[in-house]
C-alpha cells in the first residue's frame, strides 16, 4: 500500500515536467493498488465513502457504453475513450489513501508538486531571457522561446495555479521568512503567466484569482475603521488593475488579440485561434440540438464536424477532434446526460473538498476553480496534463488529507 501511495505522489509531481513519467508512475500506481489485498477490502466502502469515485465511474461507464453507438470509426472511438481512463484513478486513489493511517500524504503531494512547478517557472524565465535553451517544448519562435516541458496553454494554466498554491501555503505558514518567500514565488508566477508564457487560459484564470483575492482581502479588512481599510483595498485594486492593463495592452498580448482574432474570423473567414473556437462552439451546439439526450457517442466530434463543414472553406472549415470546451464535448458525445454527469462530478468534488483544512482546501478549491474556468475554452479533462493534474491532485487531497481533517474536527475546542 505504501508503494501505491508513493507512486501516486510521484505521478502527481511529474505532471508538470514529464509525460513519460506520468504514464510510468500511473501504471506502477495502478499495479500496486490492484495487488494490494487491503485495497480490495475497501471496495465495499466506496459507495458510502466517496461520491466522487462513484460519479467518476459512472461518467466513464457512460462513455464506454457510448462506443457501441458512436458515429466515429470503432478504433477512433476506443482511442478517444482511453483518454478518459484517468477517471478510473479516482476510485483507485480512494482505495489506496482512505484509511486510518495518520500520515499526511496530502502535504507531501502539495510540496512535491510545488517544487516541480517552481522548477518549471525558473526554467521558463531562463529560457525567456536567453540564458538557457532547455526543454522538449522550447523553440526559437518568440511564442515558444519560454516553453520548457509544456506549451503556453498547459504551462500557463499551471503557472496560474502556482500563484494560488503559493499564496495558500503562505497564509498557512507561521514563519515570517517562509511566508515572504512564498508570496515572492506567487508574485513571480503571476508575472510569468501574464507576461512570459502568455497563455490566454492561464491569463484569464490568473486575473480571476486576482479579483477573488481582492474581494477576500476586502472582506477580511471589514473590521478595520478609518482610512486603513480603504487604502489597503484601493492599493490592491490598483495593482491588479495595472497588471491586467499591461497584460491586455502589452507587446504581443494574446488577450489583447482576442477581439482582433474574432473580427478576422467573422469578416475575412480567417483561421484564428479564437475564431475557430466560436465555429467549434456553433457546430457543437447544433449537434447537441440534433441529439440532445445521448449524443453521438465517444470520439464522434471529428466525424460530425466533417459532416457539417463539407462545403465550407477557410476558418469555417477548420477541423479538430474536440470543440475546445469540455462541457460541449460531453454534450456532443453523451448529450445532456453527459453534461449532467460531468457537472455532477464537479459538484461532488466541491462538496468533498469542504471537509478539508487549509491549505489543502484552498489549493483544492483553487485548482477546481481553474479547471472549471479552463473547461469553458479547452477540453481539460480530455487533455493529458490538465486532466491528470486534476485527478491526482484532487484525489490525493480529498482522500489523503481527510483523516487529519476529521481528527481536527473531532478534537475538543
TrEMBL record:
Name of the protein in question: O-antigen polymerase
Keywords noted in UniProt: Membrane, Transmembrane, Transmembrane helix
UniProt keyword Membrane present: yes
Compartment(s) of residence: Membrane
Coiled coil: none
Main location class: membrane
Signal sequence segment: none
Residues annotated as domain O-antigen ligase-related: 187-343
Organism: Caballeronia telluris
Protein topology in the membrane: Multi-pass membrane protein
Transmembrane segment boundaries: 51-69, 81-97, 109-131, 152-170, 176-197, 204-224, 230-248, 327-347, 367-399
GO cellular component: membrane
Domain of life: Bacteria
Classification of source organism: Bacteria, Pseudomonadati, Pseudomonadota, Betaproteobacteria, Burkholderiales
InterPro entries recorded: O-antigen_ligase-rel_domated, WaaL-like
Keyword Electron transport annotated: no
